[in-house]
Amino acid sequence: MLKASNYNFFYPNGEEIIAYNSFSNSLVQLNxxxxxxxxxxxxxxxxxxxxxxxxxxxxxxxFLVDHSYxxxxxxxxxxxQSRYTTGVLGLTIAPTxxxxxxxxxxxxxxxHRDVVMxxxxxxxxxxxxxxCADKIDRMYVSWYGGEPLLxxxxxxxxxxxxxxxxxxxxxxxxxxxxxxxxxxxxxxxxLLVDKKVQECQITIDGDQENHDKxxxxxxxxxxxxxxxxxxxxxDGILPYVAIRVNxxxxxxxxxxxIIDIIKEHxxxxxxxxxAPVHDYGGDYCVGECFSQKAFIEYEYTNLMQIGNPExxxxxxxxxxxxxxxxxxxxxxxxxxxxxxYKCWQDIGNDELSYxxxxxxxxxxxxxxxxxKNDPTxxxxxSECKMLPICMGGCPRQRRLGEQExxxxxxxISALYMKRFAQIxxxxxxxxxxxx
Length: 435
Ligand code: SF4
Ligand code: SF4
What we know:
TIM Barrel; globular; 2 domains; alpha/beta; 15 helices; 3-stranded antiparallel beta sheet; binds iron/sulfur cluster; single chain
């Protein structure tokens, strides 16, 4: 017997209905007759030979499922499988805590200790990777900081060691970097590519005036000109560079200014996006930061004004089994002093460290700090139809008891889905015309 999936959304759109299923991540357009067929199939036993093409498609896309299919249990199963998989090793490594910027909102301000990773810590990481290499198929490293490019020699040395180990053990290796972009010239970008860094994230704060005020060099000078020059210079070297534009209520057009620069110079490798500045307790954000919901609304309005289908489609949801390194056993954040953490935002906070790469002592309660969360048993999330594409949101926000952690809201999701459907249809029509 068939039943309706718990994860169906139907959005009336003129004569049509846009149907989205978050369990399968499928988006389809139905006419009124199709929708009627769907309604009539619920709680029915339909023999194979009697299933119409519409019903077959709705089953294939997960809108109709067998009565015995317990979607929540399947989500829970996939979540635990993904969290405790032993085949993947994901290391986030801060080769230094030093930074050449003094950002006004930097959560690390309180924990700047200007530590550069010493040889014994580097060796301990290499030994750990050697120990894991027999059991894994894939390893990825995110270079983080401080500003990781201040310790390029360490990135080089560790990357060489990781690549050698992975080659010997037939483990797939890849890397990414989060940098402020100040030192990212052509030579450095090429070196990173040689060390298998495929993705890069540069953070910027909009126009020169805002950026230089918010993200000055430690000498007090502005940093904007140098970053923009580097962005223009390195185009095409690193395969993918995300430009995260920190946005609050005072610089809502910041991301658009970066898009203008990309257009003006016809740059190819970049993906700019607005990201909310969070209030990490400093004095910067009082009254300035967006609430989560207000940011989602702002982002939607701004994206529609820009109108670029590629940027809009980048907001299409992705299925999640777990959220991030924090709720994955194989996710490990290693600070320059060797201390281990589960979440990027906790780095440097001794109380949340779960050990040190240089010894075997593990603080298990900190190790499972985020792994013990189970959104499939949370009263709100377990009932939420967005669960398969959200999995409860940021585990740290959950730990801190932040109420506003939902990254999806019905009204905005409906608007996005209609726009996605329109873009996909236009795309299809254009392809048909070509053929
Ligand atoms: S817990 Fe939240 S802040 Fe920490 S790494 Fe995960 S998503 Fe990021
Ligand atoms: S955090 Fe919000 S959007 Fe995400 S699953 Fe929970 S209730 Fe749903």
